[in-house]
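Bumping my old thread because nobody answered last time. Still need a sequence for this structure:
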């Protein structure tokens, strides 16, 4: 999907920072440990990486809802919603793929 959007998720949702000094970009946590490899980790593309976003949001206390609408209502669109204490109805994103919807909703929630 988008390396820029992946970077925003890493920085804003996980609070990671990038280390570009080696042969491969590395996403590092506050503890200095490698959390992900920048050239292969893509939560906007891969559902396994996007699900790490869901798990992180749940750790932060957000209720999580992800669904794909039936063709007759919203053809093939994926929806993701995070509901936290500060939101009455939560924040929701609609995208062509579930990973992108998850990432966009998470970014909106942590603004």
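Sorry it took so long. Here it is:
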């Amino acid at each position: 999907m988008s390396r820029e959007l992946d970077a925003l998720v890493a920085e804003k949702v996980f609070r990671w920072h990038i280390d570009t000094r080696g042969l491969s970009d590395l996403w590092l946590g506050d503890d200095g440990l490698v959390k992900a490899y920048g050239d292969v980790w893509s939560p906007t593309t891969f559902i396994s990486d996007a699900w790490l976003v869901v798990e992180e949001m749940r750790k932060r206390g957000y209720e999580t809802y992800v669904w794909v609408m039936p063709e007759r209502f919203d053809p093939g669109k994926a929806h993701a919603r995070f509901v936290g204490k500060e939101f009455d109805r939560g924040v929701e994103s609609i995208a062509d793929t579930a990973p992108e919807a998850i990432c966009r909703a998470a970014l909106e929630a942590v603004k």
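Helices lie at 3-13, 47-59, 98-109. Let me know if any region looks off to you.
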